[in-house]
């Protein structure tokens, strides 16, 4: 490393200062919500809660976490995320493999895949289709239709293509068949991209709000994001217009809403740091070599 | 897992078909199809061929508005099941964009037996006109003696579409909902009396500003309003425009066409100019408004009584000695006054064409309106959930809140005579809240409250179509005038714009009905 000049130092300081400032600006709303979640309700109503909690208490948090609806929604979300991610990553990795080969017909099949990126049937036809498949009110509807994301498929496919063909040839000479090659050689070599895409899928499944909103009517099958959206939006002015006075009396106070936001965001926050290293490395490698 | 589910579906159908006694010789594909149908309404096959009613009440599917408690596990669900004999599976709409989701469910023909939505008639009327709903008139005639006894002809008339009843209405209890709150301790400190006329009110505001009883520094305005509610309760009443449509010379007139509107705006603009009204009111949201009041920055706020407990908690945490009271209805220059009342319907319950058991749905609704059952649903058991003394039902806390707090969500039609009395138990959950409610609705003389003349109006398509956007127009214009961006004289030009934007058609429609109703 060369010696840094004074100019470099000034520039670095400025850049760091700017980035830290940007980071703080982005963090502030989150901290505010966190503070509200553990503040006394009176302090929130009178606008006293800024960065630090006022009238610290954990009862609201406890109330939210111990609510049976919350626990059930949490379980559903974890289940869909785990099962969905495993299935999706497996199917995407398997589909990408043949598509990465130069075989007759592959370009045509690729066109079919890419077509689905650009065009879709629209909401009502999709809903009717799911109904005919008896997937309404069935958690599989959150996993099966979006099982393979074409974008993720392309990322994995280009990663496969970047692997030297000589590896496969040598394996074949040693007597390995296609599946052995895929599972023993290709996939282990592709771990960075697989981990990245797995994270994409996991975050996607966890945050999926639209799918459950449209396809899930059964209260017992509602996901956490749906529950969160309901709790938060229930109090919005637009939705208060048509409320009867009983509904208004039963409305959740701000503190409960903040606590629900915290309780449903924190779990996925804990996942991020553990996967972060793959996340960055994977995307980088995939894109540079692909 | 997938396969297992498929098998259990098949198994289920098999059992059901066997129970119903009708053999199916369908091939595999057929069986699958029926399996799915059967899971949607598990007992449908059994219902049609069953010998006695008792053993064969089908499971009903009910779609309701969002609630933070799960309808299926809330204690009341069990009570209703025991009393009516119907097992009901409840589902709920999302809190946000509920009507979009409902449109999707209705247009795809989901087999709900009962759907209950908010009392806004526009959506319901659309469905009825499209032919998506079951005509309840004959069903009520045949299976609904309790329904007929509980709900008045007037309420049914209000939900009729083309002369047919498509919904069971829950009429709202009529009450004044909001009024201006004033800091009593500020009045006491300055030795002022509670104002009773608009002029006295203005004087109080001036005194609050000059003598600053809250100790905020002289710059603060003593009163603020919500930027989305620029037509302030109580003050509008002093100008004769206490509700959204007001009687004037035998006609119902919306604010822009009412002479009181201009006077009201002139008055408010004047308050603003004198610094008696918060300079930033236009961007106030409900939460900011409460923030300003509970942190002692302002001394007058428009507050609905159901918000009293949270505001009182916050205010008293900051100022232990603070007291606040509702103002009486302020008298304008001709002695006009009044607080607008709410009315209309809390909920509408209807049966879509896609329902599997419309008759059972009506029987279920009818059973819930049985006198004892209805009381049990609404306020629970005496001595356990409520006490009864001198004609007043009072809740026993916390059990009342835990097991009946959510009761209004389960009501499909109400006993219109008794429910308003039962309902007051709900208001007594908090003494401060009840005091506020009681002041506005029991202590103030009757002429201080103005009933909403459109409360029992039938569905008025032009009015429903434009109401929201017209109200928005009125509010936007009112804000502009109050902050001085437009002069109050612009009302005439605005009235023309209002008419062109659909106000004219609404006016005609509302008054045609009003003339015909002969009130």
UniProtKB/TrEMBL annotation, chain A:
Membrane topology: Multi-pass membrane protein
Domain ABC transmembrane type-1: residue ranges: 74-275
Origin: domain of life: Bacteria
Keywords: Cell membrane, Membrane, Transmembrane, Transmembrane helix, Transport
CDD domains: TM_PBP2
Keyword Transport: yes
InterPro entries: MetI-like, MetI-like_sf
Subcellular location(s) per record: Cell membrane
Membrane-spanning parts: 9-31, 70-94, 106-127, 139-160, 181-203, 256-275
Gene3D superfamilies for this protein: MetI-like
Protein name per the record: L-arabinose transport system permease protein AraQ
TrEMBL record, chain B:
Region annotated Disordered, chain positions: 29-56
Keyword Cell membrane (UniProt): yes
InterPro entries, sorted: Bact_solute-bd_prot1, SBP
Signal peptide: 1-18
UniProt entry tagged with the keyword Signal: yes
UniProt keyword list: Cell membrane, Lipoprotein, Membrane, Palmitate, Signal
Biased composition, class Low complexity, residue ranges: 30-53
Pfam families per record: SBP_bac_1 (PF01547)
Protein name: Lipoprotein LipO
UniProt source species: Paenibacillus auburnensis
Gene it is expressed from: lipO_1
